[in-house]
Amino acid sequence: MGHEVIEAARERGDCEVAVAVNRSPVDPVAGVAVADAAEFPALLADAEPAVDALVDFTGPGSSVEYVAAATEAGVACVVGTTGFDGEQEAAIDAAAESVPVLRASNFSRGIAALRRVVSEAAAALPGYDVEVTETHHSGKVDAPSGTALTLLDDIEDARADLRERVHGREGDAPRTESEIGVHARRAGDIAGEHEVLMAGDENVLELTHRAGSRRVFAAGALDAAAWLAGRDAGAYDFTEVLE
Ligand SMILES: NC(=O)C1=CN([C@@H]2O[C@H](COP(=O)(O)OP(=O)(O)OC[C@H]3O[C@@H](n4cnc5c(N)ncnc54)[C@H](OP(=O)(O)O)[C@@H]3O)[C@@H](O)[C@H]2O)C=CC1
Ligand SMILES: O=C(O)C1=N[C@H](C(=O)O)C[C@H](O)C1
């Protein structure tokens, strides 16, 4: 995603990559040198002109560290990384007391729309069985995806009777009424697919989003960064960027 963000930044006229870092050595990307992650705090402090926003797509532990460095430097944070535990989420949330922070499990407009439709459909279809399936490239490390977890939260908000997440399915027991099935598939170079199935008696609703490429997430994150820079400290939502 780091490569995608640099390429996407090059394609638009309203932003410039001031500092790029990675844990392991990486060749320059589109002419942008990528420094060692350990240099990040110093690079942020010395950047001229000052950096407006951090865009982070890494891993949960490093994301917390990058956000801490950005907070120290008074820089707005856009966080796309997924797979956080509760403590890591709390650390990112705490940063929002000092700087503007926008964390989203998915930076595509299509998923933002899917979330609204899923919430409405879940509320409109009481008693229906719900199953969520996500499919991603074989290199993805966290499962289920952050987006699937966001959709599950949305479904549970709309359906108080669904409280048991069943990951995968095996054995010989039938489905219970309180469960939501959750399925994570990993294959090839699939950019990201999310499907929500709602099935009742004699009718089935399937809602699916497919990302055509990972560039859509990079573009959305840069939209968020441009929108977030200069705002007051606080936690912001990607839907606000899309309004
Ligand atoms: N919100 C959204 O719309 C999207 C979110 N994502 C999320 O973004 C994250 C990154 O995805 P992706 O680019 O595909 O992952 P990759 O594995 O391809 O890249 C992760 C990068 O982060 C670096 N990194 C990982 N862990 C650490 C660490 N502990 N310390 C320092 N650097 C670290 C890696 O460094 P190294 O090169 O050394 O391995 C690598 O450069 C994932 O959490 C993914 O789910 C992805 C797409 C869209
Ligand atoms: O790792 C990915 O690739 C993606 N991760 C995000 C997630 O976990 O939901 C968003 C998107 O689906 C791609």
From TrEMBL:
Protein function: Catalyzes the conversion of 4-hydroxy-tetrahydrodipicolinate (HTPA) to tetrahydrodipicolinate.
Recorded catalytic activity of this chain's protein: (S)-2,3,4,5-tetrahydrodipicolinate + NADP(+) + H2O = (2S,4S)-4-hydroxy-2,3,4,5-tetrahydrodipicolinate + NADPH + H(+); (S)-2,3,4,5-tetrahydrodipicolinate + NAD(+) + H2O = (2S,4S)-4-hydroxy-2,3,4,5-tetrahydrodipicolinate + NADH + H(+)
Entry keywords, A to Z: Amino-acid biosynthesis, Cytoplasm, Diaminopimelate biosynthesis, Lysine biosynthesis, NAD, NADP, Oxidoreductase
Domain Dihydrodipicolinate reductase C-terminal: 110-242
Subcellular location: Cytoplasm
Chain residues that bind NAD(+): G80, T81, T82, A104, S105, N106, F107
Entry GO MF terms: 4-hydroxy-tetrahydrodipicolinate reductase; NAD binding; NADP binding; oxidoreductase activity, acting on CH or CH2 groups, NAD or NADP as acceptor
Coiled coil: none
Homology family: Belongs to the DapB family.
PROSITE patterns with a match to the protein in the record: DAPB
GO cellular component: cytoplasm
Full protein name: 4-hydroxy-tetrahydrodipicolinate reductase
Pathway membership, UniProt: Amino-acid biosynthesis; L-lysine biosynthesis via DAP pathway; (S)-tetrahydrodipicolinate from L-aspartate: step 4/4
Protein origin, superkingdom: Archaea
PANTHER family, alphabetized: 4-HYDROXY-TETRAHYDRODIPICOLINATE REDUCTASE 1, CHLOROPLASTIC-RELATED, DIHYDRODIPICOLINATE REDUCTASE
Binding site for (S)-2,3,4,5-tetrahydrodipicolinate: H137, G146, T147
Keyword Cytoplasm: yes
Annotated ranges, domain Dihydrodipicolinate reductase N-terminal: 1-107
Oligomeric form and interacting partners: Homotetramer.
This protein's encoding gene: dapB
Keyword NADP: yes
Active-site positions on this chain: H136, K140
Gene Ontology biological process terms from the UniProt entry: diaminopimelate biosynthetic process; lysine biosynthetic process via diaminopimelate
Pfam families listed in its UniProt record: DapB_C, DapB_N
Documented EC number(s): 1.17.1.8
